[in-house]
Write a structure and sequence with these properties.
The structure is a homodimer. Chain A is mostly beta strands. The first copy, chain A, has eight helices and 23 strands. Chain A has a five-stranded mixed beta sheet with strand order 4-3-12-7-8. In chain A, strands 5, 6, 9, 10 and 11 form a five-stranded antiparallel beta sheet that branches. In chain A, strand 18 (284-290) and strand 19 form a beta hairpin. Chain A starts with a strand and ends with a strand. The model of chain A has no long low-confidence stretch (mean pLDDT 93). Chain A binds chain B through residues 229, 231-233, 245, 247-252, 279-281, 285-286, 288, 294, 296-299, 330, 332, 334-342, 344-346, 352-353, 355, and chain B through 229, 231-233, 245, 247-252, 279-281, 285-286, 288, 294, 296-299, 330, 332, 334-342, 344-346, 352-353, 355.
């Protein structure tokens, strides 16, 4: 793993670990944290469901398991900062980790549907958003708190966020206790985490303690201030809550996983492997690969989707000549949309959502 | 109007006519036809609803009006070939009209919800698509018919198409008899047309005669062969039914409407006006304008949306110096997605879905 920080622990796997199979092994699944990993006693832990509900709930893990049907969803999670390194190469982004191509992973998640839990609690009129609260304290939000700026004083220091009721009740959002057939590890949110398929990883809140139905989106620092797409010329330190575009559904993207960047290859046929992932509610329709910066393209062989929320691997064989090779890949979704060409045009002050063409440089000799 | 052809009648307004107001006047609304305009006797006309339904219906216009609640939707329609001229400038596209920036218009549509009509008919198990049939005979499909190629022999020569049941029953799809407060003109589909908000104009079938619930998508020429996004290196004459990506939901786009292309302007402040339109189910979050090919951007003032299916106008004032000016604009949607930069990377053999940055060239003196 490439470790960006030990505390909070932030690390990504090499792309070769993402190429081997549809689901990512537990020890290769990327870790994105904003505070120390809390270790929770499952015996005393309870999930609170409150806010604009008819019947507030307080549930042990055993009660969650026994009172609601078990669901499994294969879902890809992606950090909004995945491939930030390519943006930093354009222009520096102080204070944010230079994630390469590995802040994305896929698992089979097992738990209960948030829709079922909310149906049991009964949403009251006016419930438009469902927020998630966790106990991990984030230094980043703490600093904002201590700065005592008026707009920051009310922001909780714990990690959290919310999603609209329409997504929360659509069925695919899980409260999950297992991952790839194993109990959820502490690092990935034990005893219970949210999985919001098709949305940025930040909404899949780990170490979940509280689910709250509310009229407005969460005011949590990581929703109201961070994880928002600012205009390129904005100064993030002067952007209060509500600035920019709140990131939610992920955008169409694809990337190259194998060979690894700058790895030595020999002239002749070389297999190129990657993934593609469409946005919330769409499918990947085609993946193109180009050896000449997009002047001509060939179509990659695309795996059948394992479900609507999982990436699809693809592969193609290119014939390389001796010298430097720059390979690009782009995906098209079922609406006929494709990705922007260049990270330069996507640069934004916090370095989110780099969904430009996947790029690979190789030296062939 | 810029007339691309008299029979079938294809014409687009100058962009200034699209900038004046949210809804486009009837005489400026773009016309896209594949055959002669049929003139239908409303007194004898009936709408058939058949296929995988419990209760087939046969309805006069008066019965449609009296048996179902009237609905109004403000929706932008866009031809999949809008801005094809920019693609043709990259590489020729024989046999397709060089639509400029005017194959897009917005109206207030009044009719009944297709969902209500389908509920009355009762969808049977297995109904997955709803197809629309019209009487206009398309020369383009006729030629395919006469070519007697095996794969073309079964394709109807009349215009038609289908949408998935999920879209057909979502509520916003109308069977419309009025447009901007006027009865639907013959040129726009009288007595009844489909309006599929957020989807390519080709699915908003005019002169509607038959609505059919079916297991598979329509095999009509204009769905099975045309209006599909082929890979750049494909030869359309050799692509049978089912080739390429079937276009449906429109992709995020924006364009500049005023000043008009190549119009003379004076140095100093100049107001730039345009529109932005997000894809099916998404909203426009921001519009950026650049005078330096995307190196720096400023944010335009964006009108509040008139509804989820209508474009949003935007405007900004730029200060121009003497000489040539190239202005570009791009929109961001609520998922943090933006448009591809260049039409060159979007070129495809039938010239569809050019959703690259809006571009305007001016001479300032």
């Amino acid at each position: 793993m490439l470790v960006h920080g030990e505390e909070p622990f932030n690390a990504e796997p090499p792309t070769c670990a993402l190429a081997e199979r549809l689901t990512t092994p537990l020890d290769a699944f990327y870790s994105r944290n904003h505070g120390p990993i809390p270790h929770i006693d499952t015996a005393t832990w309870r999930l609170e469901v409150d806010g604009l509900v008819e019947r507030p709930l307080r549930l042990s893990l055993e009660e969650l398991r026994s009172r609601f049907p078990e669901r499994e969803v294969i879902a890809t999670l992606q950090c909004a900062g995945n491939r930030r390194a390519e943006l930093i190469a354009i222009r520096d982004i102080p204070g944010e980790d230079p994630w390469r191509s590995g802040a994305i992973s896929t698992a089979s998640w097992v738990g209960v549907s948030l829709a079922d839990v909310l149906a049991e609690a009964g949403l009251r009129p006016g419930a438009a958003h469902i927020s998630f609260a966790a106990p991990d304290v984030a230094q980043q939000a703490e600093q904002a708190w201590q700065a005592e700026q008026a707009w920051q004083a009310d922001l909780p220091r714990h990690f959290g966020g919310s999603i609209p009721v329409a997504k929360a009740t659509a069925g695919e959002v899980l409260l999950a206790w297992a991952m790839n057939g194993h109990p959820l590890p502490a690092a990935h949110g034990a005893p219970l985490r949210v999985i919001v398929p098709g949305w940025i990883g930040a909404r899949s809140v780990k170490w979940l303690e509280r689910v709250t139905a509310r009229a407005d989106p969460s005011g949590n620092y990581f929703q109201a201030v961070a994880y928002r797409m600012l205009p390129p010329d904005a100064d993030p330190s002067r952007c209060g809550p509500g600035s920019g575009i709140p990131l939610g559904p992920v955008a169409l993207t694809c990337d190259i996983l194998l060979p690894e960047h700058d790895s030595p290859v020999s002239p002749g046929p070389t297999e190129i492997t990657g993934y593609a992932l469409a946005g919330d509610g769409r499918g990947v329709a085609r993946v193109d690969v180009s050896l000449d910066a997009g002047r001509t393209w060939t179509q990659a062989e695309l795996d059948a989707p394992a479900g609507p929320w999982a990436w699809q691997h693809w592969r193609t064989t290119v014939v390389l000549s001796e010298g430097e090779a720059d390979i690009v890949a782009r995906a098209w979704d079922s609406a006929g949309t494709t990705q922007p060409e260049s990270p330069a045009t996507l640069w934004n002050p916090r370095g989110y959502a780099n969904t430009s063409w996947g790029r690979l440089h190789l030296t062939c000799r």
